[in-house]
Amino acid sequence: MPVGTQGSVKGLSPADLRASGTQILLANTYHLMLRPGSKVIRELGGLHRFMAWDRPVLTDSGGYQVLSLKGLVKVAEEGVEFRSHLDGALELLTPERAMEVQADLGSDVAVTLDHAVLLPLDPALQREAGERTIRWTERSLRRARTLETPGGLRQLLFAIIQGGGSASLRKEMATRTAAFDCDGFAIGGLSVGEEKRETWALARATAEALPVDWPRYLMGMGTPLDLLEGIACGIDLFDCVLPTRNARNGMAFTADGPINIRNAEHTRSELPLDAECRCEACALMSRAYLRHLHLAGEILAHRMLTLHNVTFYQTLMEAARRAIERGLYQQYAREFSERYRERGGDPPASA
C-alpha cells in the first residue's frame, strides 16, 4: 500500500497510481483528523470522493503518529492526549474516536487504536502496552459496529497486535486478539529499534499464532527485501514511505538494487532507471535527464522517481503473487535476492 498520509500519495495522481498497479493505498487518521478534519471529509462524500480514488483505502488508527510526537503525548487508560503539531491544540484520541474518525473518512478498512511503544523497553512496560492494546481493541470494535460511513457500506475492521520485543508475549497477544470478531489483523510495533533479524523472528511468531485464512498486515515495512521476508513469514499487506520518501531524495529502486540519481556516474547515461520497468519514467526518460531534473530542483523529478518506485514495488508484489500461485515462491525470493543488493544490507534469511 503506497502511503497517502494527507489523502494523497505525494506527487502522484489517481491515474498514476492506477498505472503503477496500485490496488489499495493507506491514508492516515491522525493527519486527516487534524486537517481538514474528518467531518469536512464526511460532508464532501468521504475520502474516496474527496481524493478521487475509486479503489480501496485502508486508514491506520493514528496510534503510531501520536507516539512519534514523544514529549507532546500522555497515554492513559481513556486514550492518548497530545498537542497538535499544527497549532498546539490539545487533543484526545480514544479508541472510540479513532473509529469515529475512520467512519467519517469512509475507508474500506479501519484499524483499531493501539498503544505503540519503542524498543528496547522494560518487559513490564511491554506487557502493560500489550494489555492496554487488547482493552482498546475491544473498545474500538464495539464502537465501530455502531457507526456508518458516508456511503453506508460496512468497513472491514483490522485489530492491531502489540507485544514489544518478546516473542512469547506477541504470541499470547496474537492468540487473544484472534478471539475478537474482526476481519483481519495488523502487526504493529516492529522496526522501532530492534535488530532486523529480531524483527522477523517477532513477525513470524505473531503470524504463526494467527488464523491462516485471515489477512495479516505488517505495519510500516519496508525495503524490497523486507517485503519478500515478510511474505515468507505469512504476511499479506504492507505499507511503507520508502518508495515515495526516498524518491524525493533521489533514490530509485531497481532490480539490481537502489541507485542514487544524484551520482555523477549518471550524468551522461542514456539508460532508463530500470530496463525491466513498465513505468512512464523508464519508458521515456534517461537517467541523465532525471539526474538533471533532480539537481535542478524540478518537481517532475520527484514525480517520475516516485512513480517509478511505486511501480517497482507493485511489480515486485505482483511477481511474488504469481510465484506463490505456481508454488515457486522460495525460488523467486532467492533469485531476486541474489540479484538485488541493498547497500549495507543482507539477503532475507528465508530466501
Plain-language structure description:
The protein is of the alpha/beta class and 351 residues long. It has two domains: 3-240, TIM Barrel (Alpha-Beta Barrel); 245-339, no CATH class. 44% of the residues lie in helices and 12% in strands. The protein has 15 helices and 13 strands. It has an eight-stranded parallel sheet. Strands 4-5-6 form a three-stranded antiparallel sheet. Helix 1 links the parallel strand 1 and strand 2 (25-28). Helix 10 packs parallel to helix 14 and helix 10 runs antiparallel to helix 15 (329-339). The protein starts with a strand and ends in a 12-residue tail after the last helix.
List the helices and strands and how they pair.
Blueprint lengths: L2 E2 L9 H7 L4 E4 H6 L3 H6 L3 H5 L5 E4 L2 H5 L5 E3 L4 E4 L6 E4 L1 H11 L3 E3 L11 H22 L11 E6 L5 H12 L5 E4 L8 H13 L7 E3 L5 H9 L4 E2 L3 H7 L2 E2 L6 E2 L19 H5 L2 H9 L3 H27 L3 H11 L12
Helix pairs in contact: 1-14, 6-7, 7-8, 8-9, 10-14, 10-15, 11-14, 13-14, 14-15
